[in-house]
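User: structure tokens for Branched-chain amino acid ABC transporter permease, please.
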Amino acid sequence: MATFLGINLFGLFGQLLVGLINGSFYALLSLGLAIIFGLLKIINFAQGAMYMLGAFAAWLALNYLGINYWAALVVVPLVVGLVGVLMERFLIRPIANEDHLYSLLLTFGFALMLQGLFTHMYGSSGLSYSIPEALSGGTKLPFMYLPDYRAWIICASVVVCGLTWWMIEKTKLGAYLRAGTENPQLMQAFGINVPLIVTLTFGFGVALAGLAGVMAAPIYSVTPDMGSNLLIVVFAIVVIGGMGSIGGAILTGLGMGVIEGLTKYFYPEASNTVIFLVMVIVLLLKPAGLFGKEA
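Assistant: Done. Predicted tokens:
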């Protein structure tokens, strides 16, 4: 067994891999939350439910429609994004001028309804979704065995997060998007359909959660409460990175996953609370978050 300074390298790198996988999902989910809050100032407490909906949609598509994993990666985010569009149009827009607390309570209630519906229909024991055959193998590295599907998750998450950041921060489309949400009256004067921009932005943020759900289905059991278990952690990560900071959500999601993995190896008892401990420390030292801007 390979050791270095008394550290079991197989165990350490194994936990780092788990941490990177969790961090990949944290990054995708927190990125969606950061987009929705940072650009639209909407607190979407249904993001975890959309993650769960993505996993269930992939399972239903495979078992009832014959849609495989690769097609689900495209189809399911579009379907979940459409659910987000309908949410924004018929649930959130009517209370857009009210306090942010109203949207939080409304999306939280919607999430509970969705979770209850799937629990009633499919129970809470969990459903299995097989890993696609093309990614069923693995690679033997010096200190660990790296399953191909785990490597795919990390790479795909980094690429999606990077492209999303680039689109929002570096392209003309992103400039229109930021301008439309920061100064809607001016953009409407130039003939830009701001309500449509808001709706599509919300749908895109929700679609990222659906994509994360599809990617998570072959690793975790598909259960109605899989999203609620992650939601509080993801909100903590968004707070650490800075509410509304796109780059902060990505970097903090990946970083907190690694920290959580290291904690599971060195001090497992604290692994469930280390992210919240980091959040408390960051809020005491920098209330706007690591990458957030002071109000």
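User: Anything notable?

Assistant: The chain has one domain: 8-285.
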